[in-house]
Design goal:
single chain; 486 residues; mainly alpha; globular
């Protein structure tokens, strides 16, 4: 016998839909902590080195740091391509062994580049007549300390692609806390060489821990026996995306670092490079905060692009843009109302920052909100062509601006003011590209599933067949993401 089944009501109440968060709240607090620690570490580094090194040697460390920064920023966009290649299979609930081998090969390449740069720095430093083995070792280890960021931040991108971001951020917070403590200990007598050795040993431990977890998740492989062939396979299969992303990455690297090279040649060592350093320390530190906020939206944005949900994409992007405005406004207020005291505290007697630098930095902060939010959306949705065009155009404009500044005999403040105007114009253009690119594409429902010229739109074209993590049937549609079990 069957139980009696009553008739359904004519107007049934709708099933309550589970509320979806645009970003992961635990990730928000953890990523905010690591970004804040990154900003603090940058200022602590400037604060400490300005006191334990002479101005001339401090300026040399600034140039070495700029060279190292150029190397790890110039990853040619490979990490974003790895994200695209790994994200699609993960959303579809499967593992791509070939993509994992390629990701491992790229990480190994970055590690070898860092080691090579460090050895080259040691050899060049020893060639100077006044150099000693200890001083050359300090510069070499500082170069390694900076350039290992190349592999580490690529591991962050890979961890986001397989929803392992919380475990990574815990490691990142531990690294920042240790390095800040060690830096401050130099003020009470710990040698610079000891700090650099300890920090690089910590690098090795953290990279090993992050890699082991990514191997378990299937994003890396434990046996990189075919490293050269896997690397060449990756470069060959993604040559068009690499050409576009590398153009944008090289343009961004040039824009971010060329003042470090032109200012010492133009204005000499001493105060001028230190003023540039503190200006770009604030500027880049803010960009780190903004990039951290944008990381919160990546899982939701990529799912929205794949699902052609333009409303969710716009809401998520506006949310992170609004969150970026909070630290930008706070930093601008601090500089406007207490700029001279802040600079005096930070630099002590190493250099005097002109008051006219405050509005220049404020313009850079405002423009960087547009730049970072738009750049992150374009990168993670695979619109590398837009990034390439913008990066090349802004780099060319910077060259023209610099030539005009030299001919017109601008002073340092005038040069940096012109730099901020060009940077702001590029940020506005990149914002327009984000609106006309991924946001407009997300609102257009395709008539078929034919391949798209942009990477993410191709890899995410197929709908997910099962959750990325077994046993959680709703994870492919929810944010925050599942199973962060370190």
């Amino acid at each position: 016998m069957h139980a009696n089944i009553g008739a359904l009501p004519e107007d049934p109440a709708p099933v309550a839909k589970r509320r979806e968060w645009l970003i992961s709240i635990p990730y928000l607090f953890l990523r905010g902590s690591t970004a804040g620690a990154a900003l603090a570490m940058g200022f602590v580094q400037t604060f400490v080195l300005a006191r334990v090194l002479s101005p001339e040697r401090f300026s040399i460390f600034i140039v070495i740091g700029a060279i190292g920064y150029s190397l790890w920023v110039t990853d040619l966009g490979l990490a974003k391509i790895l994200f695209v290649n790994l994200r699609g299979p993960h959303l579809a609930g499967r593992r791509d062994e070939h993509a994992a081998r390629q990701a491992t090969a790229v990480i190994l390449l970055y590690g070898l580049l860092a080691l090579g740069a460090s050895l080259a720095c040691f050899a060049i430093a020893l060639m100077h007549p006044a150099s000693t083995v200890r001083s050359a070792a300090e510069l070499s280890l500082f170069m390694l300390y900076v350039t290992l960021n190349l592999a580490w931040f690529s591991l962050r991108t890979i961890s986001i692609s397989v929803d392992l971001f919380i475990y990574y951020e815990r490691l990142e917070f531990a690294r920042r806390a240790f390095n800040i403590s060690m830096m401050l200990s130099m003020l009470i007598g710990i040698p610079l060489l000891d700090f650099l050795i300890g920090s690089n040993v910590l690098w090795a431990a953290l990279v090993a821990a992050a890699s082991a977890k990514l191997i378990q998740r299937g994003a890396l492989t434990a046996r990189p026996s075919n490293f050269p062939s896997d690397l060449m396979s990756f470069l060959r299969m993604n040559k068009h995306a690499i050409a576009r992303s590398s153009t944008g990455a090289l343009g961004g690297m040039f824009v971010a670092s060329f003042p470090y090279y032109i200012v010492p040649v133009w204005f000499g060592l001493g105060a001028a490079p230190i003023i540039v350093e503190v200006t770009f320390r604030i500027f880049r530190g803010a960009c780190v905060i903004f990039a951290a906020i944008c990381d919160l939206a990546v899982p939701g944005q990529t799912r929205a692009v794949a699902a052609h949900d333009s409303g969710r994409l716009i809401r998520t992007t506006l949310l992170v843009g609004g969150l970026c405005c909070i630290p930008a406004a706070a930093a601008s207020g601090l500089l406007i109302f207490a700029g001279p005291d802040f600079f005096k505290f930070l630099l002590h007697s190493a250099a005097d920052v002109p008051p006219a630098m405050v509005p220049v930095i404020v313009v850079l902060l405002a423009a960087s909100v547009l730049q970072i939010v738009s750049e992150a959306l374009l990168q993670y949705s695979g619109f590398f062509r837009s990034l390439a065009y913008n990066g090349a155009a802004v780099a060319a404009a910077m060259v023209v601006m610099t030539a005009i500044a030299i001919v017109a005999k601008f002073d340092l403040v005038g040069f940096l003011a012109a730099y901020s105007v060009v940077y702001a114009a590029g940020a506005i253009c990149l914002t327009a590209a984000a609106v006309l690119g991924p946001i407009r594409a997300a609102g257009a429902v395709p008539a078929d599933r034919s391949p798209s010229p942009d990477a993410l739109k191709t890899t995410l074209a197929a709908p997910p067949t099962q959750p990325a993590i077994s046993g959680r049937s709703d994870t492919a549609r929810r944010i925050p993401q599942p199973s962060q079990n370190p």
